[in-house]
Amino acid sequence: MKVELENVKPMEIEKRSFEIITEELKEQGIVLPEETEWITKRCIHTSADFDYARNLVYSEHAVEKALDALRKGATIVTDTQMARAGINKKSLARFGGEVKCFMSDEDVAERAKKNGTTRAVASMDKAADLEGPVIFAIGNAPTALVRIYELVQEGRLHPELIIGVPVGFVNVVPSKELILSLDVPSIVARGRKGGSNIAACICNALLYHLEGKR
Amino acid sequence: MKVELENVKPMEIEKRSFEIITEELKEQGIVLPEETEWITKRCIHTSADFDYARNLVYSEHAVEKALDALRKGATIVTDTQMARAGINKKSLARFGGEVKCFMSDEDVAERAKKNGTTRAVASMDKAADLEGPVIFAIGNAPTALVRIYELVQEGRLHPELIIGVPVGFVNVVPSKELILSLDVPSIVARGRKGGSNIAACICNALLYHLEGKR
Q1: B132 close to A (CB below 8 A)
Q2: In chain B, what residues touch A10 (CB-CB under 8 Å)?
Q3: Is the CB of A48 inside 8 Å of chain B's CB atoms?
Q4: Contact, A57 vs A43, CB < 8 A?
Q5: ipTM score assigned to the predicted complex
Q6: For chain B, what is the largest distance between any 2 Cα atoms, rounded to a whole number of angstroms?
């Protein structure tokens, strides 16, 4: 079979992809704010879905504060092993940070059972005990976002950034609105869309920016 | 802040989500073939993106053959650790299967360097040496799909199923067309969309179907 493959070197593919995304945004008449466009474009790159040009909401100074936190070695907490797998851990380690996902921990399963909650809720409770700066990267469980909201309201949690991008059809939309109502730095994909891939992608965009790579 | 959260038990959320997807497909006038709709709907569930109702292409008897292969303990090979993380390994193990991702292997890095290819290509070459039935779940690298195509053409690879769902803007579309041209069972997301999440999701849909869960 004859197909037309572009002769682009592996290292150039990402660059070319971002050029295409930039061109098509222009064609669609979409102008992204300079401070955040490199994150939004990476989400489009990860999903081939231009809806992210419209649904991503950045709270004021969220990116600045997130970059500061990562520079200080912030811990990233995810709600899936998949998001954890997708985050560039080598890059994060350069700044002294690490990724934690408590979803498969035995004590989390026990706590969830005891309290009659999801494991995502129990994971957030466990994360509230972490020392040092914490970034939440939530791509799956709306219950995780609701619990983060409650813990912040109770003064028991002070995250540097909440990445609120669960995907889905039940309770996803309102859980994101809860996060947007907080006075905490956040990056939220308003509406139904998101996912572990998007959560990881936003973390990586921040890390690559810090490394001056992209 | 007052938001409206639906009072749905965690176990019921997936069921309710599929009901919503079914309703909205109906509203959009989309009728999915019965043999594959449970896979397509799970992809929509994973992404909140109804484009998957239109872009997924199933080769004839692909699902039947894939289910047979999984029943026989097929190995699933992924091109990202993220896809590997997303596949339900407990469910797969019940049938004697496991997931392999060679992308971080040292011999793969060496082979890629020596041959001047991507690591994805070297991973597929390594996969060609596997014993027993193999399913490929490719959600990232078009070069992996191109290499699978070549290996099949050369008679060196006889996969039970190729899940061809890389995402992106360069060489993604034609790499999928190559797979569609083969006389090998395949599930392909035609066009730019896909991802490691979609690759894992299709594997899980097949596994849950086998378990009679959904």
Answers
A1: no
A2: 118, 143
A3: yes
A4: no
A5: 0.95
A6: 62
CA distance B200 to B84: 7
Give pLDDT tens digits for B103-128. 999 999 999 999 999 999 999 999 99
Does residue A209 carry a catalytic annotation? Answer: no
Element (H, E) at A197: helix A196-210
Contact state of A197 with B48 under an 8 Å Cβ cutoff: no
Question: Which residue in A191, A194, A197 is closest to B82 by CB distance?
Answer: A197
B49 interaction partners in chain A (CB closer than 8 Å): 47, 49, 193
Write the pLDDT tens digit of every residue in A94-137. Answer: 999 999 999 999 999 999 999 999 999 999 999 999 999 999 99
Whether residue B112 contacts residue B87, with contact meaning beta carbons closer than 8 Å, is answered with no
State the Cα torsion B76-A108-A119-B139 to the nearest 10°.
Answer: -20
Cβ proximity of A63 and A43 under 8 Å: no
Q: Which residue of A has its CA nearest to B191?
A: A48
Between CA B11 and CA B163 the distance in angstroms is: 28
Q: Kindly report the length of chain A.
A: 214
CB nearest A10 (choices: B13, B17, B118): B118
Which residues 6+ apart lie within 8 Å of B124 measured at CB? Answer: B77, B79, B136, B144, B147, B148, B151, B157
Q: Contact, B155 vs B183, CB < 8 A?
A: no
**Hey, is the C-beta of A86 within 8 angstroms of any chain B C-beta?**
yes
Measured between alpha carbons, how far is A133 from A72 in angstroms, rounded to an integer? 8
Contact A168 B45 (CB under 8 A): yes
**What span, in angstroms and rounded, lies between the C-alpha atoms of B190 and B177?**
8
